[in-house]
Amino acid sequence: MKKLHLLLIRSFLPPFIITLFVSTFLFFLVEVVITYLDDFVGKGLSAWVLTQLFTYAFLAIVPKCIPLAILLASIMTLGNLAENYELAAMKSAGLSLFRILYPLVLLMLILAGITFAFNNYLLPKLMLESQSLLFDIRQTKPSVNIKEKTFYNQIENISIRVEKKYNDGHSLKGVLIYDHSSGAGNNIQLYADSGYMFTSSDTNYLIIRLFNGTRYENVQNENSYQRFPLSIMQFKEIEINIDLTGFKLKRTDKELFRQNTEMMNMWELQQEADSLKHSKELHHESIYSQLKNYFFSRVINNDSNQKCVSIEKINNHLSQAEKSLLKEMQVNQYRSLSAFLEAEILSIKGIERRIAEHWVAWHERLVVSMACIILFFVGAPLGSIIRKGGLGLPVVVATLFFILYMILTDSLRSMAMELILPPVIAMWLPLFIFFMIGIFLTYKAAHDSVLFDVDWYIQKIKSLLNLKSSKTIKENSENLI
Predict the structure, then answer these.
(1) What is the domain range of residue 13?
(2) Measuring CA to CA, which of 78, 218, 299, 440 is 20 to 30 A from 243?
(3) 3-state DSSP call for residue 452?
(4) Residues with Cβ within 8 Å of residue 361, at least 6 apart in sequence
(5) Residue 444: which of 76, 82, 66, 67 has the closest Cα?
(6) Neighbouring residues of 64: CB distance < 8 A, sequence distance ≥ 6
């Protein structure tokens, strides 16, 4: 039995590892590289920064691809065994399907435990690192790229135009610089026949040396706005230092991102959800207090010993202007009450959505782990029924089932976020549906069903057609008689 166990595990692990890597890589290309490509290009990011970001993002995608890898690998493994009649030989030796799958079930339990530990402990840290780094990259300005005959305005308070930029990337011809640092327009202008551009050794400054040019400055008194004569200076060589610290990657404090549900483990999510629930209760108490102490006290007299004066008697002693004023005060009071209740209801709805978001993330930690087990019990019997290995039919079947699972999961998650369904139902209902599918397929596989045998269906159709044709012939012959 130990050799049989090793055979099954060795047959399962290679397609599982290959599928996991390929699916993770494809998701990585779509969700990170293609989506944020414009945020990476032209910003002069170092290889180390990109390596960090891609490593964090790649590892963070791995958990969501594990169920797909298990589904496909289980179909391929059992399909190969059934196609080569190895599964039939095991059954003929007296082993049931459940006994054959025993070592793989234990492996699924181990993978589910590893997936849960990864999602609950390591994934929040990876998401914190990747999302904070991605945010900083997106906030970084593009690197300086001055083009010919085009004003470059990405540098703060500076506009630069060059007539020609030589192939070395440093030598310039026909340089025009507008300096807006005074905040009063183009007060300072520089024209030069040629120039040379380079960065300082610490890359904090862009240094531009201009040769054979003119500097114009329109001097203005800041207090009196009195203009002085235009200042003109001829120069043979002048050097301009432009601060580039705004173009460098600046790291934001990671603690600012910790309120995101992706950066929390299950205990932190539950604690935050309880805190939000307490905040919701405070809003309910605020509504009750405001209604009791401010609004109701104006229309309800709590002193039972005093007699209530009717509105009709009051109106009889008021002038028309006083009646209008009283009516306006009542309308304003109702409007104030309506605005207060509307604001509080919106606040409570926002808190309820945040609570639902936290509970969805809480259940998701468990759902992904359980999906490893349930999708195995969908894929393994599927493989033994279709009796095909390799990358043909198993890939198609696994992709269709996984797409169905993802559509159900995403749709119900959205319904939970919109407070249409409770998070516990929305997150576990897709697994329950696939659990029932797994039971059905396992039963069919244990009884050697021909559920996906195309030849069997063709034979049944042919026999049905032959039966109908024979009945037709018999009826025609009876009619002739």
Answers:
(1) 2-140+364-460
(2) 218
(3) coil
(4) 261, 262, 264, 269
(5) 82
(6) 27, 368
Which 3 state secondary structure label does DSSP give 211? strand
The residue whose two tokens read 């996984």 is 402
Q: In degrees, to the nearest 5, what angle opens at C-alpha 241 toward C-alphas 235 and 242?
A: 130
Give the pLDDT band of residue 102 (cuts 50, 70, 90). confident
CB 365 within 8 A of CB 60: no
* Three-state DSSP class for residue 136: helix
Same domain, 63 and 167: no
Contacts of 19 (CB under 8 A, 6+ apart): 68, 69, 72, 73
CB 31 within 8 A of CB 61: yes
pLDDT bin (cut points 50, 70, 90) of residue 304 is very low
- Tell whether the model's pLDDT for residue 303 goes beyond 50: no
**Residue 175 phi, psi dihedral angles, 5° rounding:** -95, 135
Question: 225 with 280, same domain?
Answer: no
Question: What is the rounded CA–CA span in Å between residue 110 and residue 10?
Answer: 16
Q: 353 near 417, Cβ under 8 Å?
A: yes
User: By 3-state DSSP, what share of the chain in percent is helix, strand and coil, each rounded to 5?
Assistant: 65, 10, 20
Residues 13 and 131 in one domain: yes
Angle between helices 393-417 and 423-446 (to 10 degrees): 160
Tell me the longest C-alpha to C-alpha distance in the chain.
126
Return the pLDDT at 429: 92
More confident residue, 360 or 247: 360
Answer yes or no: is 95 within a domain: yes
| 212 and 96 both lie in a single domain | no
Look-up: residue for tokens 């009884």? 447
What is the enclosing helix (H) or strand (E) of 328?
helix 320-386
Mean pLDDT, residues 205-224 taken together:
74
Q: Kindly state the tokens that stand for 256.
A: 């600012």
Instruction: Tell me: pLDDT of 411 over 80.
Output: yes
Residues 349 and 371 in one domain: no
**Side chain identity at 144, as an amino acid letter?**
V
Q: How far is the C-alpha of 19 from the C-alpha of 394, rounded, in Å?
A: 12
Band the pLDDT of 272: cuts 50, 70, 90. confident
**Does the pLDDT value for residue 285 go beyond 50?**
yes
Q: What are phi and psi of 398, to 5 degrees?
A: -65, -40
Residues 317 and 405 in one domain: no
The tally of domains found in the chain comes to 3
Q: Which residue has the higher pLDDT, 359 or 198?
A: 359
| Mean pLDDT for the chain overall | 77
Query: Which pTM was predicted?
Result: 0.67
pLDDT of residue 197: 81
Last residue of a domain, one of 343, 361, 379: 361
More confident position, 366 or 315: 366
